[in-house]
């Protein structure tokens, strides 16, 4: 017996796409629609109208998978506020499931949301790779949208920050003003936002020929106390540091506190990545890379709304960090 999964596999599309073709939703390109219908004709797939109807009626939920590491980010409260507001505005039930910073736990979380008949699932994964998430998108009956995860295949299902332009400019400035002994503080565990930042920094450093010996990584948790202790450790070790880059503003606050306590004659150049623009930073001598995570979340919800209303999909926007230079 031919199943919908067989049709999706032979047509090279997701189960959700096959479902939209069968329901008559005007969100599929003519070429894709024809390919799916041709496969249905070739395989003799029999549409189960009763099952399809029940599926359409029950898929009134929106799912949100949040990995444990996201709890520690500054934008987490905004994520919950915006998704809750979205669910209320569209008369949907919001189902939130969490997962440890572990790929298997994230897989189980996605499966739980699929079992809850979610029409759309928003995923903020820090542990699963893009390739595996792409495969889940292909076979899932739900429409899945990834927040801050780059996809090569099915890019319309992903929204991410392109750090490269601002990091290139940052490395260019560090090189031009001969800032040696650069310390970069953050949580560099695989899949974390800080890991993406450091990978982009390494790429920029290679491109602009900034020697690897000029910068070093200082792993620390994404909070004030960890930043303070990491900076205190650098200073007590008599390590010469001409520039400090922190991957979020909570680490930066801890670094600032440590510098204030040590009362060193010349403070290093400070650069921080700001996940939600903090107006307090406007009055401090710090260079800021602003990352507008609320806009990423709004764009993800905009895509979800289009799917709920059977509207045509829109091209994915490119979000870029904005480097604000104050001191160099």
UniProtKB/TrEMBL annotation:
Work out whether the entry's keyword set contains Transmembrane helix: no
The HTH lacI-type domain extends over: 2-56
**Sample GO molecular function, one term:** transcription cis-regulatory region binding
One Pfam family recorded for the sequence: LacI
Q: Which SUPFAM superfamilies match?
A: lambda repressor-like DNA-binding domains, Periplasmic binding protein-like I
Q: Which UniProt keywords apply?
A: DNA-binding, Transcription, Transcription regulation
Name the domain of life this protein comes from.
Bacteria
Q: What is the recorded name of this protein?
A: HTH-type transcriptional regulator AscG
Q: Which organism is it from?
A: Klebsiella spallanzanii
Q: Quick one: which gene encodes this?
A: ascG_1
